Amino acid sequence: MIIGINCGHTVKGTVGSGAVGYLNESDETRAVGYPLMKKLRELGHTVIDCTDDRSATVSENLRKICELANRQWLDMFLSIHFNSGGGKGCEAYTYDGTDKACAGKMLTALKNAGFTDRGIKDGSRLYVVRNTKAPACLLEVCFVDSITDSELYRRLGGDGVADILCRAIAGRVPEYEGDSNEKGELDMSQYEELKGMIEGIDRKLEKLENPMIYNYIDDNMPEWARATVEKLSSRGVLLGDGDGLKLSEDMLRMLVICDRAGVFDK
Ligand SMILES: [Zn+2]
Prior knowledge:
Blueprint: E1 2-6, H1 25-42, E2 46-49, H2 58-70, E3 76-83, E4 90-94, H3 103-112, E5 117-122, H4 127-131, E6 136-143, H5 147-170, H6 188-209, E7 213-214, H7 223-234, E8 247-248, H8 249-260
Helix pairs in contact: 1-5, 3-5, 7-8
The structure holds zinc ion.
């Protein structure tokens, strides 16, 4: 198949970049759309990226998307969007509200993943549906302003939703998805080694972030430093303040070295 895919609006932060709620429509249409394009290409399909990142106006953006789609003959055109406005679930728009461009399959697949299926609706008023020549579907994956939708989407991830749509459109996903070695995943011993390294780094970080400070000559004070610190505080050399002596381990070492060298006995 030759498939045109459009990642919704322009990029985040530009004019008309889409809905913003718990999710950012502009970011997530790309987080779904680009992996979807990659997967379909790996399955042998030709994918035309009909995304326009920057336009001065919304109408310029819509016109550019249709130009990209209409440059060649397409078997289907899919425009990926995220909805807003207080609803919940997925919905699709086609020119006459009938099932085309895999609209029904995509909605069923999203429903199976846990989203409410709001059905296929009349999209004849929507610019990219009306002005693309190919059978077109504008898909609203879910609502950016719904907590439950956003949480479900986050659990699936953009790549997970891309898998769902890829199966709906192409009937399958590229084979490496299930093969841990080709995906570059770790075997058990590599995993254990990495885990050990991370735990080591964690311990070092913990020490760096929470260095041991000795404020009092108590049980926490290391045995090797106690006599020196006692001597210096009894002589009034080490005073500290209301919060204690504030000695780090390095400072303790320095004091003990100086003490052994006889610095304080002169
Ligand atoms: Zn949108």
